[in-house]
Write a structure and sequence with these properties.
507 residues
Length: 507
Amino acid sequence: MKPFIKYPIVSALVALLVLANINLARAQEMLGLTMGSYAGSLSALSNPGNINQSKIFFDINLASGALFARNNFAYIPKKDATLYDLFFKSTDQLPVYGKDSNNFTYYENLDLKFAQVSVRVQGPSAMYYTGRHGFGISTAARFFTSAHRIPWEIPVVSYEGMDYVPLQNIRFNDFNFDLGSSAWFELGLTYAYDIIKYNRTQLTAGITVKPLYGVGGMNGTIRNGDYIILDDSTVNFLNVDADLGYSLPIDYDNNTLGVSPTVKGSGLGVDIGVVYSKKRNDIIKHYHVRPCEKPYDAYYYRIGFSLLDIGRVNYKYNAQLHGFENVAAYWPSIDTVGFQSLNSFMGNLSGVFYGTGDGSYRGGSFKVGLPTAASFQGDFYLFKNVFLNAFWIHPIQLYQYTLRRNAVVAISPRFETKWFEVSVPVSLYNYKYPRVGLAIRFLYFTVGTERLGTYLGMADLNGMDIYGSIKINFTKGGCKFKGPNKCLNYEYGISEDDHKLYRKRNR
């Protein structure tokens, strides 16, 4: 691919689209990890209240990971290559397209473009439930990149070049598109409380508070880009109204890595949620000595609502914010602009639009919002060991500069036991793109994807989705009751064996 940095109005946008194409293709909501009755601490990722309504009273997540990428511009046709080819063949063995022999082609349509790359590494985490209280602690490293409402012609210019005649001498007047990228560590502290736990009703509210430690980020918001590509070396910018902020681990004078401090920003994130369940039997008060004695109260259905990733990171070390407020410029010989360093590039941009090298500088800090979203979860008991899960998540913009999660609607039939679980998520990504996935758990090990067709060679290679986990958990009712009187069990004085028989007959 030719250097996209030659085109200053589009350079950062195209960079993120390229990051999300199949050359970097690496799950987003991890439905097979977070929705089941044995999800334990990972269930808090979709709703903090879930940890109280799990079959688990104590859970230790050793390690979990999820990698997701998707865009609607760049792809390799399914007939030309598979994921096996991408991972195990050299670049010169891959198919090539276009005059510049790129290893991917693009969809030729006028749709607004999006791109998203999400990587989550969930470190040591745990949850514990006793009485009406649930407690959790988690660690995670996250990387998230999003490009939102990108005008169709911008990535085409990057792919084809300014000498692409069909895009010359056309006035493009684009509005309200943005991009963002951030890498951060987070520590999560979760608390959930059963507000109601009576008869066959359980209502739980939960919250996760997450201190955030940003190691690098950038964000650009383009309110207006009005321009004409006159020929292969000249662009007439009629109006540019945009902001660009970045805080990166490089020296902006020479682009070398390793700038201190490692943590370049901090912030606070919050997840909140409520969960309501209708039980299959009356919730009986349990007189237990140890948490493992308390049996699990099975449900007919469980529904929840949550707000996720509320908050943002304030980058203030090695940070710059630049603004171009309704400026115009006629830029000949734009194709000769080089990229020796980020400072020299921004100096050139500022010089063209403002006449001085620092005219665009607006300050040494900026804030990037987390990928905030509203989510609904529903889990319905069908018959023995078989459930149907419904899931919906929709992005919410709380801040001017923010990462953007894409929408997902999914239905997942699930068969689960303590030792084995399999689910088949059928989802609609961004309300437009259908996907079928598969997740399998063998006791403490889970692996899954929400886009199985990519691995079977049934879909174009325009992204990837995979997740997995290794953890240890302890189920409710996993040990025998040891009360002060062998016959005194629960509030009615029935024996342990009688109660188990009653529950078995009424399931």
